[in-house]
From TrEMBL:
Keywords: Membrane, Transmembrane, Transmembrane helix. InterPro entries: ABC/ECF_trnsptr_transmembrane. It comes from Arthrobacter nitrophenolicus. It is a multi-pass membrane protein. One of its GO terms (cellular component) is plasma membrane. The chain crosses the membrane at residues 21-39, 45-63, 70-87, 93-113. It holds the Pfam family CbiQ. This is ABC-type cobalt transporter, permease CbiQ. It comes from the Bacteria. The keyword Ubl conjugation does not apply.
Length: 211
C-alpha cells in the first residue's frame, strides 16, 4: 500500500530558516492565514499571500512536487467551487474564494513539511495545556491528531491501490469493486489501531480502569 499525503505535505528534513522557526510562530502563521481568508476582500491580496507562502514552501527545500501533491487532491473541487461562484458572484469573488482556500492549505502544508510529527504533537499538548482545568486531556487530544495524521494517508493510499487494481481488471465502474475492499481494509486498520491503543492502556480499557 503506498502512502498519500492527502492535502498536507509530509515532513521533509532540512535546516532552512522555516525549519528553524519556532513552532509557535508557525502555528501563528497558519492561524493568521485562516483568519485572513475570512477578512480579505480583494483577490489580489489573496494572490499575494499565496505567492508568499509558496515562496516560503520552496525556500524550505520541500520542493514543487510536494507543493503540487498537497494541492492536487483539491483541484477538481476548487474548479467546481470556482465555476459556481463565478456564475453566482462573478470572477473576482470566485478567484478570491479559491485563492483563500489555497492559502489555508499551503500554510498548513508549510507547517507539516517543516515540523517533525512528534514536535508538532508536543506543541499541540502545550497549546491545549490551559484547557486541563476544564477537564480536557492534552495528551489524548494530541494522540487523536496523531492517529488522524496516520490514518488518512493510509486509507487514501488503500483507495488508490484498490482503484488501480479495479482498473486493471476492467472494474473501475463497479462501485462494489471499489468500496467493499476499502471498507474492509479500513475496518481492519481501525481494529488494529484500537487493539494497539488498548495494549498500551489507552482507549476503552483505560476508561474502564478509571471507572
Amino acid at each position: 500500500m503506498r502512502g498519500h499525503g492527502f492535502l498536507l505535505a509530509n515532513y521533509v528534513a532540512g535546516d532552512s530558516l522555516v525549519h528553524r522557526a519556532p513552532l509557535a510562530l508557525k502555528f501563528l502563521l497558519v492561524f493568521a492565514c485562516g483568519l485572513a481568508s475570512f477578512v480579505t476582500v480583494d483577490w489580489r491580496m489573496s494572490l499575494g499571500m499565496l505567492g508568499a507562502l509558496c515562496g516560503l514552501f520552496l525556500l524550505s527545500g520541500a520542493g514543487p512536487k510536494r507543493l503540487w501533491g498537497a494541492v492536487r487532491p483539491l483541484a477538481a473541487v476548487l474548479l467546481v467551487i470556482g465555476l459556481f461562484q463565478w456564475w453566482q458572484l462573478g470572477a473576482p469573488t470566485a478567484g478570491r474564494i479559491v485563492l483563500n482556500i489555497l492559502v489555508c492549505v499551503v500554510a498548513a502544508s508549510l507547517l507539516t513539511a517543516t515540523t517533525p510529527v512528534h514536535k508538532l504533537l508536543d506543541g499541540v499538548v502545550r497549546a491545549a495545556g490551559p484547557f486541563k482545568r476544564f477537564g480536557a486531556d492534552p495528551e489524548r487530544f494530541a494522540l487523536t491528531i496523531g492517529i488522524m495524521l496516520r490514518s488518512i494517508p493510509y486509507i487514501a493510499g488503500t483507495f488508490a491501490d484498490v482503484r488501480d487494481s479495479a482498473r486493471a481488471r476492467g472494474l473501475e465502474r463497479n462501485p462494489r469493486a471499489l468500496v467493499l475492499p476499502v471498507f474492509i481494509t479500513s475496518v481492519a486498520f481501525a481494529r488494529q489501531t484500537g487493539e494497539a491503543l488498548a495494549a498500551r492502556g489507552l482507549g476503552e480499557a483505560d476508561d474502564e480502569a478509571e471507572d
